[in-house]
Structure formats: C-alpha cells, structure tokens
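go over this:
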Amino acid sequence: MRLSALFAPAIAAVSLGVSGCISNSLSDFQEADRTLRLEEYFLGETTAYGIFEDRFGKIRRQFTVDITGTLKGDTLTLVEGFDYSDGVTDTRTWTIDVLGDGKYRGTANDVPGIAEGQAVGNAFNWQYKAELKVDGDTWTVGFDDWMYLLEDGVLINRAYVTRFGIRIGEVTISFQKGRRGGRS
C-alpha cells in the first residue's frame, strides 16, 4: 500500500479544518427585514455575554463585556471592559471609521493592523488579527466575525479564530442593550 493512501483521510480532514465550514456570504442578507448599523446599535451602553470553545468544542473560557459606545462625526469608539469567569479582567478600545455603504475600518489596542468589515441587511462581517495572551505567551490570531441582528435588538456574534490558517476555536457572543442587571 502506498503511503499517500494511508495519509489521504488525514490530509482530507486537515484540509477541511483549514478551509473551515464558513459558507456565509453577505449577499445572502440583502433582503433582510432588519438593518444592522454598528454606529446605531453600539451607541450608549451594551452588555455582552460570551464563550470561547476550542476546536474540539470544549468551552475554555466564559466572559461578560460592558461596552460604552460614542460617536463623534464618522468615528465610533467602543470601550470594552472584559470580566472573565477565571477572575481576569481586560480592556479593549476600538476606534472604528464609518465609511458609508455599510463599510467599516477599525483599530484596537490589541489589533496589530487594520480591521475591515461590511454590513449588509442584518449581518456584519469583520476580519482582523488580534494578539491574545496564552499561557504567558502572546499569539497573533485571525478573527472572522459574523454578527446577526435578530428580533428585539438581540445581536449574536460568531467569531472563527485561526492561527497559521488553522481554526483553533470559536467565540459566541450575545449582545443586549443596557448594563448588566438592567443598569443603564
């Protein structure tokens, strides 16, 4: 038996893992009955609840984020205060340029470059690299975020996280307007 025949199933599995199963296209959301505009949704106070799952589906981290959004001209600033279930806290500040036609470009303190995204209908796709602290080291990972505005102002985010082109996990976040416990 040839060695290539022995490794064919493993190569196919790795190829699927690298290419992922992301099949969304923003054009799929053109006819949506809601319109997501970041500068409208995130203005004021928002709370988010999330989990990080590794590539095997094991939940590795849970967190809550308090977000304050301000808009000055065409610049949306989001200050995100993270509270992780293991007691760690962190802050990320996004500066997002509203470019028009549903297009956005942004930077953040842990994003070593530019994030670019576009909203169509009730969906938003945002792609960027971020620096994550992992076991005393810093990893640069890719994020492919997909946000969906649902009924009653519920916003769901699925982020596919990659390192060296291989999916290492997924983040799921649910956003709601206001502060935790109904505080505004």
About this structure: The first strand starts at residue 44 and ends at 54.
